[in-house]
Design brief:
The structure holds two protein chains of two kinds. Chain A is mainly alpha-helical. Chain A has 13 helices and no strands. Chain B is globular, with a radius of gyration of 18 Å. Chain B is built from nine helices and no strands. Classes of the chains: A mainly alpha, B mainly alpha.
Chain lengths: 273, 173
């Protein structure tokens, strides 16, 4: 070990910064080298003098100030937390310019109106359904009443009453079997020609019903009135009922049939075939 | 400190009781002013609170404390005018006190006055490293972490500082 290296280590030795092996090596050198020993002594003097350098005691004031500072800091942090909550509100309030507030209020109003309207409509719909049901029930009752009146009036001895009865068929929307049978029977058997003609008119309106069509075709041979015969022939042409050709031809062979009617029937047969 | 960082500010008192003396000593040797050093100690502890989230818990607390102290000191040096007033001589007189023979007392007073002058004249880097190693009695390894140097660089700087101090001290004697 040379002196320069060992002199560099003197401070380390004094400061107790050397590893065990380094310290021993240095001490071995120092034991042999008086110059280095002298250098060590000088350095140690300085080192020890440094150690004697006084440091005044910090005053008690410092401790008091420290704890006061911590308390103040804690309070400030708590206040900051409270303030940050407040500042959120403040920011919202600041963001709400009069214009924006107005828009917001307006849109809230619209939403409110929509909700109220919807509620009102749905509240109204419920009774409306009930009313409809009531009306349906009432109209069914009226129809049934018309039907009863019609059937009873058809039995009436007065021809004008029977004509009124047939007028009801237009007011009865849905005509049931009972009514059509009564009408067909009237068409074939009523003593009054006018009643039969009106009945035929009414039955022609109901010709969608196959039973009515069949009744009408069968009725051709049973009529003796030329007016009814001609009217029937017209109805058959209008309905394009091919099944009526045979009964119509039968009428042509009957002796008591009016000539005018025969001509009419011939035209009708031509129109149908 | 980890507990302080996580919101337990009561534990700050513990840190104060353990570290305020060495911290005051460091700052006193660096500035040479007792009153100013008390203010600076307060400042360092305030920064501990304020920047407690920056304490990672990986390094030692003491290292982190010296980092803060050096920053506080740097701010102080920047702000303060280069002061003519260094060590209060009254402090020495108080410390040495009576009892010793008058001439020996005189000699020691003289020696300490020379030393403090020499320390004042050191470059700040050298003064700082001697304070950390001699007065704070920190290991080179820890000084290296505080100053962001390698251990070898710390060693070299300590020797140079010591040699500079010796030269200045002997000039005064």
């Amino acid at each position: 070990m040379n002196c320069e290296h060992s002199r560099n280590q003197l401070v380390d030795l004094l400061g107790n910064q050397l590893a065990e092996a380094e310290r021993i090596t240095l001490e071995v050198h120092l034991a042999q080298c008086p110059d280095c020993r002298e250098e060590l002594a000088a350095t140690r003097r300085l080192w020890q003098a440094m150690g004697r350098m006084p440091v005044p005691e910090p005053t008690e004031k410092m401790r008091v100030r420290f704890y006061a500072m911590v308390e103040t800091y804690k309070d400030a942090e708590a206040a900051k937390r409270r303030r940050s909550l407040k500042s959120v509100f403040r920011r919202i309030r600041r963001a709400l310019t009069p214009q924006l507030a107005l828009r917001l209020a307006y849109s809230l109003l619209l939403v409110g109106a929509g909700l109220a309207g919807g509620y009102w409509l749905s509240a109204r719909n419920a009774p409306a359904v009930a009313y409809e049901r009531q009306i349906d029930a009432l109209s069914t009752q009226v129809q049934e009443m018309h039907q009863t009146v019609l059937l009873s009036l058809l039995e009436n001895p007065s021809a004008s009453e029977r004509l009124r009865a047939i007028g009801y068929t237009r007011e009865i929307g849905q005509v049931d079997r009972k009514v059509t049978e009564a009408l067909l029977s009237t068409l074939n058997n009523d003593p009054n020609v006018n009643v039969r003609l009106v009945t035929l008119e009414a039955l022609a309106q109901l010709a969608d019903d196959p039973k009515v069509r069949e009744g009408l075709v069968q009725s051709i041979t049973q009529q003796d009135s030329p007016l009814v015969q001609a009217a029937l022939a017209d109805v058959m042409v209008k309905l394009q009922e091919k099944r009526s050709v045979r009964p119509l031809k039968q009428l042509l062979h009957q002796e008591n049939v009016d000539d005018l009617v025969k001509t009419k029937i011939k035209e009708s047969i031509k129109a149908l075939s | 400190m980890t507990q302080v960082r996580d919101g337990n500010l009561e534990k700050m008192g513990l840190l104060f009781e353990r570290y305020h003396r060495p911290l005051f000593g460091f700052l006193y040797h660096m500035t040479g002013q007792a009153d100013a050093s008390e203010d600076l100690v307060q400042n360092v502890f305030y920064r501990m609170l304020k920047y407690r989230h920056t304490f990672t818990g990986e390094g030692e607390f003491r290292t982190w404390m010296y980092h803060l102290a050096r920053n506080v000191l740097a701010d102080h040096v920047r702000k303060a005018k280069p002061s003519a007033r260094h060590y209060d001589l009254a402090d020495f007189v108080d410390r040495i006190g009576g009892g010793a023979p008058a001439d020996e007392r005189m000699q020691k007073e003289q020696e300490l006055a020379s030393l403090h002058d020499a320390l004042r004249k050191l470059s700040p880097d050298h003064r700082e490293i001697l304070i950390l190693s001699r007065f704070q009695e920190l290991k080179y390894e820890e000084i290296a972490r505080i100053l962001n140097l390698t251990e070898g660089a710390v060693k070299v700087r300590v020797h140079r500082a010591m040699n500079e101090l010796k030269t200045l001290f002997l000039k005064r004697q």
